[in-house]
């Protein structure tokens, strides 16, 4: 019989909750880029996005159950920590209730959130079978940006669109790197070019920036350099560790997207970044 503490850890691992700070930073950045709005609605947005993300991660393991039984027996389903049917039910219910919350923010948000749900489920279903799956994962993050922008009840502006695309490119880069996490095959350098997309967008879309915003850009550049340092040396890179660090770096991508930062906002993003790194110490990010 599974005791409560291990059972809770199983649920947290299935939901990959160490990545949740990046979901919240996505919501905050896109929300502010699109002019902000009612903060009560923002909280509803964050809760809805959280449910969609965690539900999507549950369905990810449910769809991958056969694969994991052969190649990743330590995962919760093949290791017997939780029944496969329970993972299907929990994942489906979380996504349904997440979409219901976002529906409360208006018809436009509801339709965009439905597109996001479709992308999440499609990614979960096919990511082990098609080479282009990283683009589907990137589409999920892009659509989350658009959903968060629309939740302000203002028309989604160009800044949300372009920074959302830049984030999507970043996710493409780290996702292709993640495919080498098992150590099979050589690691190509080309995905790293996608990781630079947010830096290019920051300069091209919002060249007029405050001092704190430029410092955020520098921080992102420094973090990318730190994450990829092993690829520039003769040391065999630890791809899993690199991918986890790049996932936490999504918070820095979001922070640097804002052309004007206050000390309070900078501290909020820094807190989310550190929280993501802290969570990764106990809950795997991938």
Q: Can you describe this structure?
A:
The structure is a single chain. The chain is mostly helical and 286 residues long. It has one domain (9-280): UbiA prenyltransferase (Tetracycline Repressor, domain 2, Orthogonal Bundle), CATH 1.10.357.140. Helix content is 71%, strand content 0%. The protein is built from 14 helices and no strands. The longest helix is centred in the first third of the chain and has 25 residues, at 39-63. 44% of the residues are buried. The model has no long low-confidence stretch (mean pLDDT 91).
Write the layout of secondary structure elements.
Elements lengths: L3 H12 L4 H14 L5 H25 L1 H7 L12 H20 L3 H20 L6 H18 L7 H21 L12 H5 L1 H9 L5 H17 L11 H10 L1 H8 L5 H18 L6
Helix pairs in contact: 2-3, 2-7, 2-13, 2-14, 3-5, 3-6, 5-6, 6-7, 7-8, 8-10, 8-12, 8-13, 11-13, 13-14
Would you summarize the structure shown here?
The protein is mainly α and 286 residues long.
């Amino acid at each position: 019989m599974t005791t409560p503490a291990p059972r809770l850890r199983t649920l947290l691992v299935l939901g990959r909750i160490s990545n949740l700070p990046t979901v919240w930073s996505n919501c905050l950045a896109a929300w502010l880029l699109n002019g902000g709005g009612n903060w009560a609605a923002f909280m509803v947005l964050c809760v809805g996005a959280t449910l969609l993300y965690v539900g999507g991660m549950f369905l990810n393991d449910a769809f991958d159950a056969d694969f994991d039984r052969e190649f990743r027996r330590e995962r919760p389903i093949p290791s017997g920590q939780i029944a496969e049917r329970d993972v299907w039910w929990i994942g489906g219910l979380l996504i349904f209730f997440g979409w219901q919350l976002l529906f409360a923010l208006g018809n436009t948000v509801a339709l965009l959130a439905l597109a996001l749900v479709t992308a999440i489920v499609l990614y979960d279903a096919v990511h082990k079978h098609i080479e282009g799956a990283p683009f589907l994962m990137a589409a999920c993050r892009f659509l989350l940006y658009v959903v968060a922008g629309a939740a302000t009840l203002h028309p989604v502006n160009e800044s949300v669109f372009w920074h959302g695309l830049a984030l999507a490119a970043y996710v493409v880069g780290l996702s292709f790197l993640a495919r080498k996490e098992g150590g099979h095959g050589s690691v190509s350098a080309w995905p790293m070019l996608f990781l630079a997309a947010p830096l290019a967008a920051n300069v091209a879309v919002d060249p007029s920036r405050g001092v704190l915003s430029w410092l955020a850009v520098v921080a992102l550049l420094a973090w990318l350099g730190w994450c990829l340092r092993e690829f520039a040396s003769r040391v065999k890179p630890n791809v899993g560790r690199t991918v986890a660090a790049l996932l936490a770096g999504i918070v820095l991508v979001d922070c640097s997207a804002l052309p004007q930062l206050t000390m309070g906002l900078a501290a909020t993003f820094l807190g989310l970044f550190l929280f993501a790194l802290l969570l990764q110490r106990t809950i795997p990010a991938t």
